[in-house]
Structures are given as structure tokens and as C-alpha cells.
Specification:
43% of the residues lie in helices and 14% in strands. It has helices spanning 2-16, 25-33, 40-51, 103-126, 140-151; strands at residues 57-58, 62-64, 67-69, 73-75, 80-85, 130-135. A four-stranded mixed beta sheet has the order 1-4-5-6, sandwiched between helices. Strands 2-3 form a two-stranded antiparallel ribbon.
Length: 167
């Protein structure tokens, strides 16, 4: 029942022109398979951190006044929020690309994603959190080192600034 309502709402959005119709059934399945959490790079990073003995919350909701956010990995005691961002969805300067189909939909959508990321970073930092943003293409070694440096600052010399790796 729920799936039929969702399909009906999607069809109405296609008719109104507010949401692009899929080019084919395969593309539609691919897009529906995209996950909000538990992506492969995120799971690999979490597994490596867990093997090192680090404990964290996954997909833990933080209420920061008007801003509600769910970082991929949260170290509550250390106030460290880790995001593993996909290159397409968060417009990676190295691998992100402008869509060539349905640009009227995707360009503003991706811009809103980037603006939301900035809002989230600002809200977290204003609340005293350290924000770490990692790209999905970063090596596991680099990602682990970045997180460990933030969570265990005594283990290595690290700076006191946010370790976002991007602005």
C-alpha cells in the first residue's frame, strides 16, 4: 500500500514537471538503490574504527536549535561529527560532475546539498562540535588517520581547527 502511494505521488510529480521522470527502468532502480546511510565507504570506515577499539554512534540525530543533523559517525563524548560525502551528491571538486540530463532539476538540487552542508557545518561548530568531512574516494588510511587525530588528539600532534578537509 505504501509503495503504491509513493509511486502515485512520484507519477504526479512527473506530470507537474517538479520531478524528472526516469529515462528507463534500470536508471530508476539505480536511483532508488542509493542509500542515505550505511554506504559502502561509510561501513568500511566504521569497521576500521571499530577494529581499533573506537566506539561511536552511527546516524545519530543531533538537534542544534533549528538545524537537525544526522552525521554518519558521531563521537558524542569528544563532540566529533564525521560525514562521508559522496562525490556526486556533495559536488566533489575532484570527481563531482555536472549532470547532463535533467539539469533543470539536478543543478539546483546539488547546490542545495552544498548549502545544507555549509549550514550544518556552521551549526555544529557553533555548538562546539568538530566537523570532519571525508570524500567517498579518500583512502581508508587517510580517513582513519583524520578521525583518529580528532578523537585521540594525544595520539598525534593535531591542530585545534576543524578537520573538514574542505570549505
Amino acid at each position: 500500500m505504501r509503495d503504491s502511494k509513493r509511486a502515485q505521488a512520484r507519477e504526479q510529480a512527473h506530470e507537474r514537471g517538479t520531478y524528472p521522470a526516469p529515462l528507463n527502468a534500470g536508471r530508476s532502480r539505480n536511483m532508488q538503490a542509493n542509500r542515505r546511510s550505511d554506504t559502502k565507504p561509510e561501513v568500511v570506515l566504521r569497521s576500521a574504527l571499530h577494529r581499533m577499539g573506537l566506539r561511536y554512534r552511527k546516524d545519530f540525530r543531533l538537534d542544534l536549535g533549528e538545524v537537525k543533523v544526522r552525521p554518519d559517525i558521531v563521537f558524542t563524548a569528544k563532540k566529533v561529527a564525521v560525514f562521508v560525502d559522496g562525490c556526486f551528491w556533495h559536488v566533489c571538486p575532484e570527481h563531482g560532475r555536472q549532470p547532463t540530463t535533467n539539469e533543470w532539476y539536478w543543478t539546483p538540487k546539488l547546490r542545495r546539498n552544498m548549502e545544507r552542508d555549509q549550514r550544518v557545518n556552521s551549526a555544529l561548530e557553533a555548538a562546539g562540535w568538530q566537523v570532519i568531512r571525508l570524500w567517498e574516494h579518500e583512502s581508508l588510511t587517510t580517513a582513519v588517520e583524520t578521525v583518529v587525530a580528532a578523537v585521540q588528539p594525544d595520539a598525534e600532534h593535531t591542530s585545534e581547527t576543524s578537520a573538514t578537509g574542505r570549505q
